[in-house]
Amino acid sequence: MGSSPSRIDCGHIVIVGGGYAGANLAYQLKDRADITIISDTSYFFHKLAALRASVEKGFAKKITIPLKDIFGDKLKVGKVTGIDTNTKTISLENGESVKYDVLVLATGSNGVLPCQTEPKTTPEEVHTVYDTYVDKVAAARNIVIVGGGPVGVEMAGELGTDFKDKSITLIHANDNLVSPHYTAKNRKDVQKILEQMGVTVILGDKVTNLEQLNKDGATTVETSGGKQIPTDLVIPCIGLTTRRDAYESSLGDKMDSFGRLKVDEYFNVIGCEDVFAIGDCCNTDEPKMALNGMEHAKCIVANFANKTSGKPLKKYNAGFIMMGISIGRNVGFGQKGTSSTIPGFIIKMLKSRDLMTGKTWSDFGLKQPK
To answer: SS3 for 298-327, per residue?
Structure first.
């Protein structure tokens, strides 16, 4: 029998954020340390599967995991409005204050439908939002996806798989799909797969009237290349923004130009003792992906344990670890490191079938609803 993980004694650890980085960190610490996790929603939002929820009615119940069921009374649902690093106090919107010995900020990113929703009070509200969106998708004949990064590619794959009778166009301002971290061959292979599904891919052209487009009715998409594309539904899959409202007023001088907190190789916020930042809200030089945020959490846990036992701290080496692209339910594509292609059947098995919903519930010790 293996021994239980050692107790971590860093005082009261407060984690702000219930996403991939924050919730995974809290889950690894909840039985080993004195923690509180603060989230402005009562649920973990499984963003990786949100696009499937936009094409399949009822799937949304699989992407909202109740945080109370994971953390019990270690959870506080509330919005952080201020951080006083001198008194080590966090202020919540409801007037409550929370003291910390160690603070970890993991506030994540903001996005728009269908990639993400505005924070909702209950999971049921999220389910309603996505079921309504499924109806919009089903009613549209001509759909334009704006953005050909990983999210745009996956959105095109979901639509191309479930709605073969629709006209689907993907417009990307760059000359290649997915990510510059993908090899040229892999990017071309992804494009070929989409085109075989009937998706029209337009590269090196930018939508110029995105802000003016009527996203719920017939309209015309205009591009810098002079194209005019009639559409019933425009799906934006570009530009997540850092969620910084929890720390902007208190730690504004610690942010970079993207609103991310500047951290050292241990995720310590520069100039702030006992304050750390992980996930999308820190400025590590790497793709902002759920997997990387989860790696950040592992590193933090290891260092908290090392600090307790007097061992040297472990530096985090940022880098491109792995990116698996789900192109609908039946096709997967992946790359490890900078050049190694992962066989498609592996990505299909691990991700494409259910977008890791079952695994994500299981990783938090819960059973996924049917």
So the answer is: HHHHHHHHHHHHCCCCCCCCCCCCEEEEEC
